Amino acid sequence: MTDRHEAKKIAESLEEPVTEASNLAHKLGLAPYPVNYWIVDYDEMNELIAYGGFQQRYPHWRWGMQYDQQQKQSQFLGGKAFEIVNNDNPSHAFLQESNTMADQKAVITHVEAHADFFQNNEWFGMFADDPDAAAMLARHADAIREYMLDPDIDRAAVEKWIDNVLCLEDNIDQHERFAPVETEHPDEFVDADEDVEDLSDKLDELDLSDEVKGQVFDEEWLEAQRPDDDDVTFPEEPEKDVLGFLRKHGMQYDEDAEKAVGMTDWQREILEILRREAYYFAPQKMTKVMNEGWAAYWESVMMTKEAFAGADEFINYADHMAQVLGSPGLNPYKLGLELWQYVENTTNRREVVEHILRVDGITWRNFHDRVDFDEVQSLIAPDQQITAIDANSLDDLDPEDPRVDATQLDRAREGELDVEKYPWKVLTYEGLAERHYSLVEPQNRGFVSRVSQEELERTSRYMFDDSRYDSIAEALADVDYTRGWDRMREIRESHNDVTFLDQFLTQEFVDDNHYFTYEFTQSTGDYRVTSTDYEDVKKKLMLRFTNFGKPTIVVQDGNYNNRNELLLAHKYNGVMLDIEQAKKTLERVFHLWGRPVNLKTIVKELDEHDIEVAKRRDREPEPEERGKLIRFDGEEIEIRDLDWEEVEDIAATEVDYDTKPDEWLA
């Protein structure tokens, strides 16, 4: 545990950075939740990471596994835990006591941006609507712990039930708000098997001889009493919230009675608790790239451009950022940061281009011939008074200038604030936007000149402001420096990762940031780069984030074959299910339904002869797609072929994202 005296000492040293980071965030146009910061030690940080950012979660082996994984990553792979912050109001952020001051400042600025995202993104507003998430999760933990300690309930049965539910924790409806399930039993169907069993019991009560029962009430007669209405199917439309459907209609299988019986109160409550938590954590999974990129962007603005990292801390901070952005694999921090920078640059470029296109004599056709781009770079450069603020330049600032914070300027002139350390205090949002205008940064100096003819024509077509300028200098004097940041905040409010990537990942972005696709090729037996086309890159990335990167499974029928069997459907997008994993999942779903469960999907099959021919001809074989039904009846797995007509409704179309490499399926 953290030494309380040491923690207090660290907290006191961080009071100023915490206060000023919040002040700067608001100046930059952010509107974060208030944040409470806590000092923790190494072990406590690993525990919090394992718990998903909270101090209390329900008892389960998964947390210990995640804790062990985090510790090993730190010890053997060189990973470092910089921060963890949870989505709550107020948000709670945890700072590891062993981190350097540069790391602590980086975490604080990063957290302020996360808290802004939590507060203002609509997807967080839709799913994470509990005003006190920590209290909600603590209540859940207490409820499940009580069940585990109940002498009338087998603890192992509780743990197994949790395992069964967790295999489906991502199978919720991401596009609807959480709504509690209140109906415990299905109204849409009659349990035919149970009715016939009841009838058999009543015949036994009549105390009829076996001879009479055999002659009059034989098995053929009993079977005829089963309803044969093939229209008793539900739901009317495929149900995405599989957990909600099972909560409402599911049963448990009684192994002693060898039949389905109603769930117990504790089973129903735990299922609903875990479903509620799945909805709470959904927006974090749905916005990982956006959220981490957003935090990395504003952290960089504060730490480097506003020198929140002191001169003696900058090298440590650069190392910190390199570790974050240099992580291998699909790195949401790096991808998100690059996309936000691209959004800012393209928005600012459009603002500049629109003004230049209003200059007399300049059209989208002659734009590149008539415009001196060196002159443009000089004209859009921020005012020197805004970029070079110190104690000696305060008198040059005009308090009537909308870029200047008149109140803070007076305080600075009176010596009440340290303008050498915090020059941003005397500027407004407009002043800071100009001070950090993206198009004048060295890495972006050619961004305006690279505008395509296609974009110029499109911009010209949709320009509705008919004001004209006599010169480029006059036009650029009216450029709105805040437009890029304003646009970023608009996007932050309404998008998730899928829509973000779909709208803003362009060929220009792919070329500038060197993205490409790769595939496993049967002809060579290894992975090869296959495309640098942005549509291919987008497809591959979209698969990674659609439905949290997991297969999309829906409930298609809760009375399959009119026998109360469950039919799940895999919304096939060109990527096969892991069949072995699907079998194991069905075995767990059986315990949540209580009766046989089915899953229909589509598989790709390759003929060995076609593979050999493809290798000789150095081309890829064409797989054949076939429909399959996997069924588990409580004892054994059965897999059978389905006619194509039976799986057409789940087949991939031309707009599906079907280029994901095999190892991404894990």
TrEMBL record:
Record-linked InterPro entries: Spore_V_R (IPR007390), SpoVR-like_C (IPR057008), SpoVR_N (IPR056174)
Domain (SpoVR protein-like N-terminal): residue spans on this chain: 12-350, 484-548
Domain SpoVR-like C-terminal: 551-602
One Pfam short name: SpoVR_C
Coiled-coil blocks: none
Matching PANTHER family: STAGE V SPORULATION PROTEIN R
Identification of the protein by name: SpoVR family protein
Organism: Halorientalis brevis
Lineage, top ranks: Archaea, Methanobacteriati, Methanobacteriota, Stenosarchaea group, Halobacteria
